[in-house]
Amino acid sequence: MVPVELAPVPPSLRTDLLIGGTWRPSGSGRTFEVLDPASGAPIAEVADASPEDGTAALAAAHDAWPAWRATPPRVRSEVLREVWERITARTEEFAALITAEGGKPLSEARAETAYGAEFVRWFSEQAVRITGTVRTAPGGANRQMVLHRPVGPALLITPWNFPLAMATRKAAPALAAGCPVVIKPAGYTPLTTLLFAEVVREVLAERDLPTGVINVVPTSEPAALTEPLLTDPRLRKLSFTGSTEVGRGLLRGAARQVLRTSMELGGNAPFLVFEDADLDDAVTGAMVAKMRNSGQTCVAANRFLVHASVAEAFAEKLAAAFDELVVGPGWHEGTTVGPLIRPSAVDSVDAVVADAVDRGARVVRGGTRPDLAGYFYTPTVLRGVPADARASTEEIFGPVAPIVTFADEDEALRLANATPFGLVAYAYTRDVGRAFRLAEQVEAGMLGLNRGLVSDPSAPFGGIKASGLGREGGEQGIEEYLDTTYVAI
Ligand code: NAD
User: Active site at which residues (predicted)?
Assistant: First the structure.
């Protein structure tokens, strides 16, 4: 492993608030620190938006709305296409920031840059495909025209685990649809979103288009900033990605003016391995589904449900794959597992492992905190985890793979669905009939069949049950930012 020095955050990076096309300090003059999770060291100071700054950002978005709505779809499309090109050209810069503030290995940060940029390209292509319908009413006496119009100013609240992709997955369809945005990035990772917003602002400014369509207000007090916006009639849409607990609170807040909402919330993904699976493929998929971002993804495989006849072989192969992982700062050449986001995340993962062990689980690998400066946890494999252990019932959000066995397909489905969450499930089987039964019966918004990765900007991402409302990506993603108007003619 070759250590690499932590690249400094470039001095050119804007760390103020972006409001109405202008970079400015927060009204209070306050700032907050952004930390490198691989060392705990501060890497930047960012303007700390006050509730008044949040309201100013919404006012700017609202002011920009008429002009943006009237901007031809082709022009909105070309803006987004140019933004995609510029992000792609600056991949190394984006990846460096993602690793610096979020901790993931550089290779994963580059992949996030490509994935995040792809939402912008995809929605640049959708901007010109917003359609409506006209038909003769069944009675024949009149016509029915259905139009889709931009919802209006949208508040986008994003999590820290994919600071570029979660921002682009919301901002790109909003802008494509003709909606201005106010982005409230996660406090741990505002830097990547600020760079993204600057790229969008530049492209708009060069074309003399309204720069107020993109506003960014990082804050250390998200509830205080958000609360007045939820009751402000200028806000027409809330799109949130984060924990189910915070999402529930925001839904309650949004109910007051019956805001359009999209909610991408937590998960508890089952990863099913049937007796007829190709076990080597299943382990390859498991590593992707479990270990991306050190297990800190909403689509992370949370419970490995394995047929009893292949559980030992699967556990051995998985443990062998875990042995190949290299834990360290994302900057180090060869690192495959970076730090967790904060010390509290390490404590929480450790407590989940201790709970499983207390209830009789066996630690096959890991279960320790490595002797490193930052916020690390050793990749862990657990066997014999009972269904009521926290590792089975809660979102782990760390590099821990609990293995549970099942006897037959019915039990596998029952265990898979025994959770209030329903974001994604994974299943490895070579039986086509079973694959279709799973597709119809697994309670999840997405299913990876013999694949450990489902996310794709061209496909509808989202959950059912307590995992959320609405879809991001695909043809559906832009619908979240469009209202339907029916005209009887
Ligand atoms: P979080 O809910 O703590 O925070 C998410 C965002 O909400 C952040 O920007 C945060 O500052 C803001 N926030 C926190 N409290 C708020 C409040 N009271 N009012 C307004 N905003 C508030 O979640 P997190 O820790 O950043 O992210 C991890 C969670 O996100 C996990 O549960 C994960 O499953 C989920 N997630 C879901 C998806 C998905 O697409 N379904 C994607 C990524 C992450």
Answer: 264
